[in-house]
């Protein structure tokens, strides 16, 4: 039996049949109705077909946020090709890796894809520029979409590469369909919502949690090329934005903007947050402004939806990531893979119909991560008495000092309670005596000073002695990837190489 609506993006086209005149996407002063959006999807599918894109091909997309990114994703789906969104800021070496791994038949680019435009990648497949695609010759008659099976790959999202070489997460039509069902059951997305998307669409949270599902529900997307606090506040106020996604760093930058004010965010019903631990005090401040920040847990390999905190528990259960989504099973296991009781910390395994098929062309990595008991997330946590998931840290980030395990997130959350600390990251560096020592890097709140011994004394009241940092540094900023995740490995390398002077005005105490 056919599963209507299973093909990736099919529900967007069905929405266009039901509500053709409603606003689908607002971008830089231009509004596309659902009818406009469907016409462009069909048109670009014809262009890709004329360019030789076939069933089971891959199409690379290198662009900042713009409507054509979504149009290309759904056009690829109509042809049965896999859509491969890539970071527009990728270096030539990073692009070469993805090109060699995905082997696309065509590359779509925005005007800001300078690496492609520079000619530093001479062996590129054919390139289609978004600024000119409407002038491409193609058969204007809409053709029927290619029949795809549920287990065919629809989207390949490459991991950020913070822990090694990027891996292409192969998301099938079925996994993306069930991810949408999970998200729509777990989040209160309404048909009249206006969703602001300013995080990159090459990131699965922006693409497959907020953008796709807002369109599935018939709401309106406000797209921004990239995040800018001032422009974000303008969009929220001028377009009456009701929902958005933001990593914690974005929330902090919004609050620090000189243009920030409660009146400017009055239309927001909620903010979905993910990608990094949400400090409880941040959630409390936004709740005080009547904007609940819904913490979530997810990862690319899960489509990404795994858990969502309940809106009515944003403040009361600040440390929780919420219960598993309705179609998701979460299991916490010990070092030998045995389930542990609720309240006991272990590795988090995830199971459900939304899990990816594996890593593109990487069978060993697939076998290691996608096991018979579920997806090995590499994250550590426990299930609380209410059945909610609480994230403690990551297995790979655990610091072992003097035979004791230290979870960086625990120390980070402790120091973030200090009123003068805006951001913090804890990492381990090699030590000939202790194996590893704990390092803390602090970003102070703008306009506030922080004495390093004060920070050490503050932590001594919150964490065990063996968890106290032996080295504390104050930096101006932290290295992050384009979606706001802290690059722990980069910080670890800086500290290991005694690079505490990497940023101007850094101060370190041993």
Question: Can you offer a commentary on this structure?
Answer:
- By secondary structure, the protein is α/β, with parallel strands linked by helices.
- 28% of the residues lie in helices and 25% in strands.
- It contains 14 helices and 26 strands.
- It has helices at residues 10-18, 34-50, 67-79, 92-102, 114-117, 173-186, 204-217, 229-238, 248-256, 280-288, 363-369, 408-415, 452-460, 488-496, and strands spanning 23-27, 30-33, 58-62, 82-86, 106-109, 127-129, 153-158, 168-172, 194-197, 220-223, 243-245, 270-273, 293-298, 305-308, 329-333, 346-351, 358-359, 370-371, 374-383, 389-394, 399-401, 404-406, 421-431, 435-444, 471-474, 507-509.
- An 8-stranded mixed β-sheet has the order 2-1-10-9-11-12-13-14, sandwiched between helices.
- Helix 3 (67-79) links the parallel strand 3 (58-62) and strand 4.
- The longest helix has 17 residues, at 34-50.
- The chain is globular and about 70 Å long.
- Residues 499-510 have low confidence and may be disordered.
Summarize, please.
This protein is of the alpha/beta class and 510 residues long. The strands form six sheets. The chain has an eight-stranded mixed β-sheet with strand order 2-1-10-9-11-12-13-14, sandwiched between helices. Strands 15, 16, 18, 19 and 20 form a five-stranded antiparallel β-sheet that branches. The chain has a four-stranded parallel β-sheet with strand order 4-3-5-6, with helices on both faces. The longest helix is centred in the N-terminal third of the chain and has 17 residues.
């Amino acid at each position: 039996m056919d599963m209507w609506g299973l093909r990736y993006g099919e529900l967007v086209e069905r929405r266009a049949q039901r509500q053709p005149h409603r606003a689908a996407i607002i971008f830089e002063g231009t509004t596309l109705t659902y009818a406009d959006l469907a016409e462009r999807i069909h048109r670009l599918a014809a262009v890709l077909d004329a360019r030789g894109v076939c069933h089971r091909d891959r199409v690379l997309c290198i662009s900042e946020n713009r409507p054509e990114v979504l149009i290309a994703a759904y056009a690829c789906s109509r042809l049965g090709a896999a859509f491969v969104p890539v970071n527009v800021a990728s270096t030539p070496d990073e692009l070469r890796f993805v090109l060699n791994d995905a082997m696309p038949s065509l590359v779509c680019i925005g005007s800001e894809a300078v690496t492609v435009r520079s000619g530093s990648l001479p062996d590129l497949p054919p390139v289609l520029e978004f600024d000119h695609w409407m002038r491409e010759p193609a058969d204007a008659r809409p053709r029927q979409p290619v029949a795809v099976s549920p287990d065919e790959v629809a989207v390949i999202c490459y991991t950020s590469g913070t822990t090694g070489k990027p891996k292409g997460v192969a998301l099938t039509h079925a996994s993306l369909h069930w991810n949408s069902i999970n998200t729509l059951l777990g989040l209160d997305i309404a048909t009249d919502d206006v969703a602001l998307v300013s995080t990159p669409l090459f990131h699965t949270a922006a693409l497959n949690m907020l953008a796709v599902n807002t369109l599935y529900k018939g709401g309106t997307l406000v797209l921004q090329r990239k995040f800018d606090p001032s422009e974000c506040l303008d969009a929220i106020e001028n377009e009456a934005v009701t929902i958005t996604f933001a990593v914690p760093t974005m929330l902090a930058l919004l609050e620090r903007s000189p243009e920030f004010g409660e009146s400017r965010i009055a239309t927001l019903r909620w903010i979905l947050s993910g990608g990094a631990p949400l400090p409880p005090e941040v959630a409390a401040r936004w709740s005080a402004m009547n904007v609940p920040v819904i913490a979530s847990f997810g990862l690319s390999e899960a489509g990404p939806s795994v858990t969502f905190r309940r809106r009515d528990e944003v403040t009361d259960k600040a440390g929780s990531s919420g219960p598993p989504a309705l179609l998701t099973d979460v299991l916490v296991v010990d070092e030998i893979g045995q389930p542990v009781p609720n309240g006991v910390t272990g590795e988090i395994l995830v199971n459900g119909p939304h899990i990816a098929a594996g890593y593109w062309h990487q069978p060993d990595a697939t076998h290691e991560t996608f096991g018979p008991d579920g997806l090995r997330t590499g994250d550590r946590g426990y299930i609380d008495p209410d059945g909610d998931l609480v994230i403690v840290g990551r297995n790979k980030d655990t610091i072992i000092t003097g035979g004791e395990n230290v979870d960086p997130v625990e120390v980070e959350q402790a120091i973030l309670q200090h009123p003068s600390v805006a951001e913090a990251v804890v990492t381990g560096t090699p030590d000939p005596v202790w194996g590893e020592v704990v390092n803390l890097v602090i970003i102070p709140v703008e306009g506030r000073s922080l004495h390093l011994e004060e920070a050490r004394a503050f932590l001594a009241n919150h964490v065990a002695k063996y968890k106290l940092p032996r080295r504390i540094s104050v930096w101006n900023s932290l290295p992050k990837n384009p979606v706001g995740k802290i690059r722990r490995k980069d910080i670890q390398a800086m500290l290991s190489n005694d690079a505490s002077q990497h940023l101007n005005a850094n101060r370190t105490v041993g």
